[in-house]
User: Which sequence fits this backbone?
C-alpha cells in the first residue's frame, strides 16, 4: 500500500517520546488518541530543521504576511473559499480558542448546543466553564431537533464540529445553510471547529463556515491534525465581527498573556500549506484504504453491521450495539485490554455506549492486528 513517493507502511517507534497514545497505555497496542503514527510531511520537517539551525527562538509575531498569506491561499486552493486575513486570530489550540469564545459570548448557566455523539473535548470545555451542554443527534432530518434546542431559553452558542468528530460526517450545503438561518433567527452564535476539514474522502467536500456566516460567528481550526504536528501546538481562526475580533486578540494579548506564538508552529503551518499538499493527498488516500479495510473485515465477520467508511478523518466510528448481545462498554473494554492487548476508545466517552472509535492513522499492519483483536473481542464477549 505504500505510495510511490511516501512510505506509510514502515512503523515509526514512538515509545519513550512522552507520547500520550503509546506511552500512556503500557503493554497495549493503542488505537486511541487522534494523532497519526506517521512522520510529518518532508517539507514540514525540512522547514523545521532550517529554523532550528538558525538557533535563536525569541518572541514571535503571528501577524505576518507569510503566515496570513499561507492560510489565505490554502483556503482558496483546497476549499475554493476566500477568507479575510484581517479577521484572523491565533491561539495555542482549537480548544483554547473555543474556551475563550465561550467566555466572551456566554455566561455561566447558558446553553451550548452540540451534536451527539460529542467529542469529549467539547464536553470538558462546556462543563468546565459552568455552561449547560445541550445535545442534538447528528442524524436530524430537516434540522427539527436542532431548531427546538436553539429556540429554548438560554441557548447562546451552537458549537459545531465540521467535519464531525467522532462520526466523520461531512455536513452538506443544505444542512449548513439551514443551521446558519436557524442560528440567525434565534440569535445564537456559531463556533465551527473545522480541524478535520483537510481529511475528507471519496468525493466528500468540506464547506467552511465562512460561506454561511451571519450574525455572531467564529471558525476555529489548525493544520496540526491533517499534517500531524499537534505537539508543536498552535491554531488559528476567523472571528467575523470586528469588535469581537479585537476583543479576542486583546484577551489573548493581555488577560491570557499569549501574545507570542510558538515559532515552530508558525513555520510548520506555512510549510504545510505552501508545500505539503502532495503528502496530505497521499496520507488521505492511505488512511481511506485503511478505513475501507476495516469495513471489509468487520462486515465479513459481522454481516449485520453493514459498516461504511466515514466521509472524513482517520477514525473508524463503529456501532457494535447490534452484535454485542447486550454487553456494555465495560465488558468489551475489559476483554480488549486484558485478553486482546489493545486499547480502543469506548463510545461512552462520546456519549454513545455500544460504539467504539478506532484510530487507523497508522501503518496497515497495525490496523490488521487491531481489527482482528476487535473481532475476537466481540466474539468472546457475546459468546
Assistant:
Amino acid at each position: 500500500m505504500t505510495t510511490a513517493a511516501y512510505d506509510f507502511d514502515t512503523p515509526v517507534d514512538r515509545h519513550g517520546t512522552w507520547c500520550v497514545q503509546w506511552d500512556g497505555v503500557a503493554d497495549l497496542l493503542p488505537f486511541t488518541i487522534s494523532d497519526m503514527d506517521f512522520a510529518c510531511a518532508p517539507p514540514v520537517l525540512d522547514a523545521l530543521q532550517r529554523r532550528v539551525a538558525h538557533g535563536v527562538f525569541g518572541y514571535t509575531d503571528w501577524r505576518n504576511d507569510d503566515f496570513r498569506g499561507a492560510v489565505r491561499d490554502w483556503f482558496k486552493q483546497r476549499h475554493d473559499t476566500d477568507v479575510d486575513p484581517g479577521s484572523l486570530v491565533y491561539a495555542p489550540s482549537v480548544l483554547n480558542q473555543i474556551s475563550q469564545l465561550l467566555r466572551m459570548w456566554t455566561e455561566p448557566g447558558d446553553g451550548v448546543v452540540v451534536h451527539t455523539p460529542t467529542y469529549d473535548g467539547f464536553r470538558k470545555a462546556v462543563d468546565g466553564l459552568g455552561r449547560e451542554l445541550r445535545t442534538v443527534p447528528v442524524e436530524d432530518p430537516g434540522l427539527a431537533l436542532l431548531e427546538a434546542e436553539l429556540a429554548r431559553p438560554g441557548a447562546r452558542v451552537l458549537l459545531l464540529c465540521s467535519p464531525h468528530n467522532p462520526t466523520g460526517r461531512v455536513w452538506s450545503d443544505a444542512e449548513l445553510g439551514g443551521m446558519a438561518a436557524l442560528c440567525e433567527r434565534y440569535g445564537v452564535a456559531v463556533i465551527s471547529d473545522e480541524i478535520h476539514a483537510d481529511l475528507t474522502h471519496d468525493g466528500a467536500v468540506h464547506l467552511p463556515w465562512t460561506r454561511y456566516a451571519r450574525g455572531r460567528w467564529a471558525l476555529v481550526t489548525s493544520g496540526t491534525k491533517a499534517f500531524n504536528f499537534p505537539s508543536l501546538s498552535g491554531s488559528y481562526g476567523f472571528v467575523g465581527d470586528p469588535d469581537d475580533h479585537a476583543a479576542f486578540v486583546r484577551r489573548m494579548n493581555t488577560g491570557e498573556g499569549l501574545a507570542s506564538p510558538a515559532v515552530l508552529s508558525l513555520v510548520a503551518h506555512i510549510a504545510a500549506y505552501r508545500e505539503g499538499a502532495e503528502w496530505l493527498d497521499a496520507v488521505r488516500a492511505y488512511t481511506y484504504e485503511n478505513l475501507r479495510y476495516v469495513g471489509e473485515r468487520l462486515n465479513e465477520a459481522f454481516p449485520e453491521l453493514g459498516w461504511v467508511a466515514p466521509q472524513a478523518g482517520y477514525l473508524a466510528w463503529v456501532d457494535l450495539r447490534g452484535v454485542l448481545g447486550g454487553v456494555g462498554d465495560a465488558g468489551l473494554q475489559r476483554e480488549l485490554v486484558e485478553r486482546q492487548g489493545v486499547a480502543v476508545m469506548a463510545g461512552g466517552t462520546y456519549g454513545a455506549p455500544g460504539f467504539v472509535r478506532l484510530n487507523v492513522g497508522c501503518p496497515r499492519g497495525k490496523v490488521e492486528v487491531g481489527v482482528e483483536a476487535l473481532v475476537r473481542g466481540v466474539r468472546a464477549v457475546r459468546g
